[in-house]
Structure formats: C-alpha cells, structure tokens
Model the fold of this input.
Amino acid sequence: MRTLFVPLILVATAMFAYAPYMIDQAAYESSMGLVSKIFYFHAPSGMVMLLSAVVCGVASALYLWRRNPMADHVAIAAAELTVLYGLIVLVTGPLWARKAWGIWWDWEARLTMSFVGWLIAVSYLFVRKYGGPGSDKLGAALAVFGTANVPFIYLSVNLWRTLHPKTSVVPTLPPLIRGPFWFSALALFLMYLLLLTARVHLERQRAALDALYLTDED
Amino acid sequence: MFVKTALLVLKKDFAIEVRSREILYTTLLFALSCVLVFSIAFVKEGEPLLDAAAGILWIAVEFAGTLALGKTFERERYAETLRALLLAPAPRAAIYAGKMLGIVLLLSVAEVLLVPLVALLFHAPLLAHPALLVALLAAGTIGFAIVGTLFAAMLVRVRSRDVMLPILLYPMTVPVMIAGVRGTSALLQSPADVASAGMWIGLLASLDVVFLTIALWTFEPLMTE
Amino acid sequence: MNADFNSVRLTDVSRHFGRRRALAHVSLTARAGDILGLLGPNGAGKSTLIGTLATLVAPTSGEVRYGGQSARALGDGLRRRIGLLAHELHLYPELSARQNLDFFAQLYGIEPSGTVDAALDRAGLADRAHEEVLGFSRGMRQRLALERALLHAPRLVLFDEPFTGLDERAVSAVADRLRELAAAGAIVIVATHDLDLADGLVTRVALIRDGRVLADEPAAPGLRARYRSVMGHA
Done:
C-alpha cells in the first residue's frame, strides 16, 4: 500500500476532478432537477459508510479475541470514517428529501438506520476518548455489538416504515446515469481507502511513539 | 458449574435486594415518574393519543432499566465485589449470566406493576392478549438486559459510567424498542393484529439469541483489565 | 483438573496503560512456604502486580506461570487455588457476616456448614454473625474479609495492604495467621507500604518503585535501612 499510496492519490484527485463533468453529462432528471445530482454523492457515501462500519466491527472482534494491536488501529480509523461518511449521508439526504418529499427529515427506514448507525459510531469515538484506561476494549465490544446489530436495525426499521427508494434502484439505473454513478462510487471508495490507510498509519505511529516513550523509561 | 454459579449470583442479588429493597423501589418510582412525564406529552384534551400506551410502557421500561443497571453495578463496585466474583473458579460468563437474570427479574416485577397502570391511565386494552403481551415483554426485556448488563459491567471501571451507559445503550437497543413498541401497538389495535405481534416476537427472539451469544463470548476478555 | 502448584514465577512481566507503565519487566519467583513482601510507596505498581497474579489483570508482555503452567493452560480451576484480600474488602455491606461467607463458600464449591462456622470463630465474629457488615468497624470488616479470602484454603495467598485499620493486637493476629499459612505450604505474597509491619514477618522482600523491582532478596534484619538505601539510589 505504501508504494501505491501516492499514485492512488493522483488517481483519486483526477477522478474527483473529472466527476463533476461526468455528473453534469449524466441524464437530467426532469422531476427533481439539479437536486437529483446529490444522488451521486449520497448513495455511494451510504455504501461506504456501511462498509466502514463492517470493517470496524470485524477489526474490533479480532482485537478483542486475538489482541492484535493492528486490528485496533484499523477499528478506530474505520470508526472515524464511518462518522465522516455518515455525516455526508445525513447532510445530503435531507437536501434531497426537501425536494423529493417536501420535508427535510422523515422517520423512514434508511434515514433512521443511517442515523442510528451514525450514533453508534459516534458513541464508539466517545468511549475511546473519554473511557480512560481500557477504553480500547470497551470500544471493541461496542463495535462488535453495533455490527451484529446492523441486520436487526435494518429489519426492524424496514418493517416499521418505508418510503425510501428501494435497494433495487441501483441495479436498474438507466445506462446514462449508471456510468457516472459507479464512477462517483469508485472515487468515494478510493478516497475511503486512502483515508483509512493514512489514519491507520497515523495510529501506528502513535503506538510506536508510545512504545518509544516506554523504552526510553526503561 | 456454569448454571450453579449463575444461580448463586442471582440468589445473592436477591438476598441483598430483599434486605434493602432500594433498587426495586427506586426503579418502580422512576418508572412511575416517566409515565407521569409522558402523559404530559401524549395526552391531548384529556384523551391519550393513539398508540401512546405502547410507547410509554416501553420507554418507561428502558429508562427504569438503565437506572437499575447502574445501581446494581454500583453495588458490586462499592467494595470491589465484582473482582471477587471474577475470581470464582467458574467460567466468568456465569457471573454475567447471573447478573443478567437478576435484571430481567427486577424489570419483570416493574412490568407487572406498569402494564395495568398504563392500561388504566391511557385507556389501552393491554391485557386483551395476555399470552402475546407476556411473550413480547419477556423477549424485549431479555434483549435489553443482555446488552445492558454487558455494557454496565464493562463500564464499572470508567469514571463517567453514569453518563456513558445511556449514551451507549439507547442507540444499541433501537431494534428492541421498535419491536417492542410496534408489537405492543399491534396488540392494541381493534381487532388486534396478532400476526404482526408474532412477527415482532420472532424478531426479538432471534435478536436475543445473537446478542446473548456475543455477550457470553465477550465478557471474559472484557473484564480482564 | 488438578490445578495445584508449588511456585509462582513472573518472567519479564510488563503492563502499560498508554504511555504509563504500571509494571516494567518484573521477574519474581515465590515458592511454597515463602512470605514474599512487595514493598514500595503508593503508586509503585504493587496492586497491579497483585492483580496480575490473581489473573484479574492481563500483562501486556511477559508471562506468569503457576508451577510451570500458564493461567490459560490451567483454566478456570486455577482460581480455586488463589485467595485475594485487596484494599477494598470484597464484602457485601448489606449482607450479614454469615451470608457473605456462605455465598463465597458456595461460589468456591465448598459446603458452607462447618467451614463458615470455623471462619466466623477465627474472625472473632461468631456472636455477631447475623449482623449486617454495614455496622461493623473497619477492623471487624478486615478480619472478616481475611477469613473470606481464605475460605477455600488457597495455595496462593495474595494480600494487598492487609493491615489497614487494624489495631496492634489484630495486626499481630493477622501476622500469625500469615506465618501459619506459609508453614502449611501456602505461597504468601503481601503488598504493603508499611515497613515496620513487614519487618520480621516476610521471608523475602521485593522492593518496588515505578513498576520496577529494584531488589529481590531474602529478608534480613535492618529492613528500613536497606529500603532507604535501595530506594534512595535508584
């Protein structure tokens, strides 16, 4: 990853530079107008958020049962990025909803689910920051539970209310929208990968610094 | 050894509670105050809003449960007795199971009082389907206690545990609450929507199984400092 | 499974919390019959060390072996051989003395009847067995806590500041009890900051400061002078 890091940054930058052009060229949706373009950020961010939450949960499980410090670094990095991408989802969502449904927020299934997932990720960071010694393990337990909870939140919230475009929207996109959509998704995913790598690296350096302090005392 | 230890811990908690009755009384009183506060929000012109009873019942259980969890583990923290329990020559998860059963039992007592009270105050036919309501309450209370006991136990050594517990617990128990509230309000419709209530009970039961497995699994690594 | 052992050995045990090291490369051995004193100022890492020996604290690196085997290999049964009296007394204040002992005896799989009576006698609380611990003085609680920790006749006896709140007579009773245990083949480890009480009681001393063992040697007369010279120069 280290050797690929700089080239991938360049690729990602190029993709982000090109994305607006591509999105502009995409088919114009007459009923929604310009607001429909939010879709290219919103839906991929949601996907990345979910992915990141799963990464955090799996890494936390590894840390809790195997005590692998690297897994802990990945977990905290993934949790922060879950919060970041979740924020993109939660800000762009209402912008779109205002136009599509005439309201900023609705307690429908996926909105609720994103909100709950985001809240769990925030509470993870909260524990890590204010939990004191041993907070790494508390956070790990929280993440494991949070991830195992995803299907239940999904199910319960879906059975509760549904208004959101179904998951089946993405595979059935018209070709003129599909291209730019997956292009944006790839760009956002690439950004996720780069941020995750950088953040994990930072966490490793921090651990290395702690270790240096400790050896210096010896 | 596992079952024996879990039951011993439960019996011990019961003996303490019989002597002081502190947690039971505070839990009940707190649940009552919750009901009072919610009545202000959910009663309009003397008539309770539709479905309000289901929500009030479950929120009162969740809030009172959080209080009970905090108090129970405060008791184990006072003379560091939790550490003494962890030194017992039994699987450590047995200690967790015992504490969890205690919370379930305590909340069940609170529910025995809350259900008729809410039914009465909010004109809700809660007792029309007693078997389904009991199943719903049992599955939901167990689900809440499974997550709550683990989180309260792991927060024992954290300074800001009182604030931390609800912050961690409420988002995590969203599916439990949705299933509980929706299931109960399905029972409140006329005629009652028995099929939906059954579906919510099923969801709660599978959630209980998954969460209990993880909790028993995580307790030991979590409690080793 | 037979989880009994004749010695406890720590090899290069470290425990750190972030940048704070509670234990640094601790290597120690205690054998049956020893009374090992862990001496050092408050915050030296004595309690973390006791917790590590009791399997409550996991070392960040290094290992603890009970008669040549790791805690993991010995399983839950190992804890049947460990008795811990910590600074907080591990008693339920709302329960009576007898209820406390009954509960812990059963937790260790011991039939409470005779054992608990004997323990209450030794604690000098036979006539107050049914009173709540809440109403006991610190000294009474301390004696009860001591008997509670020893109910299951552990091989490894861990004491963290066992003399707190005791009057002179009680102190010498506890000291006699420790000698008795060691003579009966227990491995006794006592953490304390009180040099006067340790002097003449312990058979080995480990001087600890900042999570480090500065000296590990047989106890000799003139403990206070030795303590001062070691701690002063390090």
